[in-house]
Amino acid sequence: MKHQKLQFKPGSFRLNGLFRIVFFMCCLLSAGLTQAQEKKITAEFKDTPLSNVLKQLEKLSTYKILFTYDDVQSYKVTVSLKDATITEALQKVLDGKPFVFSDVANGKYISVVYQPKKKSDTTKEIKGKVVDSKGETVIGATVRVVNATIGTATDIDGNFTLRVPEDVTTLEVGFVGMKTQLVSIKDKTEVRVVMEEDNTVLEDVVVTGIFKKAKESYTGAVSSISSEQ
Fold first, then answer.
1. Burial track 158-173 (b if 16+ CB lie within 10 A, e otherwise)
2. Is domain 37-114 given the CATH code 3.55.50.30 in the classification?
3. Phi/psi of residue 144, nearest 5 degrees
4. How far is CA 129 from CA 25, 121, 186, 218, 223, in A?
5. In sequence order, which ranges of the chain are alpha helices (DSSP H)?
6. Per-residue pLDDT at 148
7. Beta-carbon contacts of residue 129 (< 8 Å; ≥ 6 apart)
8. Contact indicator for 57, 41 with CB cutoff of 8 Å
């Protein structure tokens, strides 16, 4: 039986050793990046401007948070964070606000973008009755959506039916000589509106003089009275 001699190429041990060192360094680097990405955030904000909160989250995390100041300046945040990831922190901070943020797995940058809710295309039907303070029906009262051209008028029984967008929450009801009423229709399909008299609408009329006019040129009703009367 013949024995084969093992032959090693010069420098093979050195190459293997170098490979092991490089592999070990890569593992350490990968572990460091993973640990940095999973860095936990603990902070508390009370009525703090959203712009300041985002800047603070940027300091507490390993990410650069990009946003437009004009979009966020009118919003404030009240939230408590404890051992939260950057994703969890942003979800809590932006909860209930018209903003979305980019996927944190896309790199070192996170974009916070203003994204207002789209107006609803669906509508709902509102029915109602308009009466005065004595319970008498108000005929011809105007019923309309505030700051919109959608409207109607009450019928001979003081009733109205109006179809409005789903997101409309307030109607305006008006009538000459009565105070304009703002009526909430949130989560409602029927309403009853009680109008109140507006005593400031009509002022006293003062007669300042008399004049003569031929009755033939007057188109209205004419009554004649004597000087004794």
1. bebebebeeebeebbb
2. yes
3. -150, 165
4. 79, 26, 17, 41, 41
5. 12-37, 50-60, 69-72, 86-93
6. 81
7. 137, 154, 157, 158, 159, 160, 191, 192, 193
8. yes
109-114 and 151-153 beta bridge pairing: unpaired
Question: Taking phi first (over 0 means left), then psi (-120 to 50 degrees means alpha), and beta for anything else, what does residue 118 get?
Answer: beta
Q: What is the pLDDT of residues 44-77, one digit of tens each?
A: 999 999 999 999 999 998 899 999 999 998 999 9
pTM score: 0.41
Look-up of token digits 């008028």: 153
DSSP state at residue 138:
-
Question: Distance between terminal CA atoms of the chain?
Answer: 156
CA 81, 83, 86, 89: dihedral to nearest 10 degrees? -20
Per residue in 3-54, pLDDT (tens digit) is 555 554 555 445 455 555 555 455 545 544 444 455 899 999 999 999 999 9
Question: CATH fold of 123-194, please?
Answer: Immunoglobulin-like (2.60.40)
Instruction: Report pLDDT for 180.
Output: 93
204: which 2 tokens? 């006293």
Lowest mean pLDDT among 78-92, 100-114, 127-141: 100-114
Q: Where are the domains of the chain?
A: 37-114, 123-194
Kindly tell me if the per-residue pLDDT of 200 is higher than 60. yes
| Alpha-carbon span 96 to 45, nearest angstrom | 16
Indicate if the alpha-carbon torsion angle 54, 58, 63, 69 is positive or negative.
Answer: positive
Q: Are 73 and 89 in contact (CB under 8 A)?
A: no
